[in-house]
Design a protein that fits this description.
Structural class: alpha+beta
Order of helices and strands: EHEHEEH
CATH superfamily: Glutaredoxin
Oligomer: single chain
Number of strands: 4
Radius of gyration: 12 Å
Distance between the termini: 13 Å
Mean pLDDT: 95
Length: 79
């Protein structure tokens, strides 16, 4: 089974951002992390997808999760 493409929009000071990234690392799931505190283009992309400025925003192949929602992440990834 091919791994789903995951994007995480985060900031270095966000504790929930660290939690979601640590969770995926523990599961050996690859993701791309975008630091929206300095990348304005990615910040705008995140706002366009989620409708808000809060982080983290997790995009799993178009399914957007706001915050660290382990149950939703597990459901989308089939864990």
């Amino acid at each position: 089974m091919a791994q789903k493409k995951i994007k995480i929009y985060s900031t270095p000071t966000c504790p929930f951002c660290h939690q979601v990234k640590d969770y995926l690392k523990d599961k050996k799931i690859e993701f791309t992390d975008y630091d929206v505190s300095f990348d304005n283009d990615r910040a705008q992309e995140m706002i366009d997808k989620s409708g808000q400025m809060g982080v983290p925003v997790v995009d799993i192949e178009g399914e957007v999760i706001i915050g660290f929602d382990k149950e939703k992440i597990d459901k989308i990834l089939g864990l």
